[in-house]
Design a protein that fits this description.
Radius of gyration: 20 Å
Distance between the termini: 65 Å
Order of helices and strands: HHHHHHHHHH
Largest sheet: none
Helix content: 55-70%
Number of helices: 10
Length: 199
């Protein structure tokens, strides 16, 4: 019998908050049970196991992240959209380190396909990149480049990995500028010829 007041949404939200406060690896069923003042078994009416709990946190965080990105890029195109996308991504990663870590876990592709938030992430990302004239396989390559750059930068920044005196914000801005140049000059035959109006 589920404990009164406990719902799956409450359990997952509490797990996400715990991830931000103490790190994603600290998210366990036992830790959440202590948070709610219940036995571990009480939570298994809401989540199947630890993996299910962590995947649910990942899906929650992925939805939050893409909502912020979508709001940032709305009405923008080209470099403006890229910068807005990048800045929203970085802001979320730094503000919600545990939630962000959850978004990096590997998930079963069937779960990805069934998640509206993750489908929306692909749609918004691909839409932004198609404005650069990219088609497959360059589209996938470009997504991987953006993800690797954004994630690598944010991960290093979060752990104090940049020790040089130059301002981190300045380096971030230059990285976004460099990505724009790379996308504008994408190598290979997969780039669509731009219309006269775009030149």
């Amino acid at each position: 019998m589920p404990r009164a007041g406990l719902t799956t949404d409450r359990v997952v939200a509490a797990a996400a908050d715990l991830a931000d406060a103490r790190g994603f690896e600290s998210v366990t069923v036992s830790a959440l049970a202590r948070h709610f003042g219940v036995r571990d078994a009480s939570l298994y009416t809401h989540v199947r196991n630890l993996q299910d709990l962590r995947v649910r946190v990942a899906l929650l965080a992925g939805g939050e992240l893409i909502d912020e990105i979508a709001a940032a890029v709305a009405g923008r195109a080209g470099k403006d959209a890229l910068a807005a996308f990048a800045n929203a991504y970085r802001a979320y990663a730094l503000r919600h380190p545990g939630r962000y870590a959850a978004t990096q876990i590997r998930m079963d592709q069937s779960l990805v396909a069934d998640s509206p938030a993750l489908r929306r992430t692909a749609e918004i990302t691909h839409g932004m990149l198609r404005a650069y004239g990219l088609t497959e396989p360059g589209l996938t390559d470009a997504v991987r480049l953006l993800r690797a750059t954004f994630h690598g930068f944010c991960a290093l920044e979060a752990t104090g990995g940049f020790g040089a005196p130059r301002a981190v914000q300045a380096s971030w801005d230059r990285a976004v500028d460099a990505l724009h140049v790379a996308l504008e000059n994408w190598p290979g035959a997969d780039q669509v010829v731009r219309s006269v109006a775009e030149r």
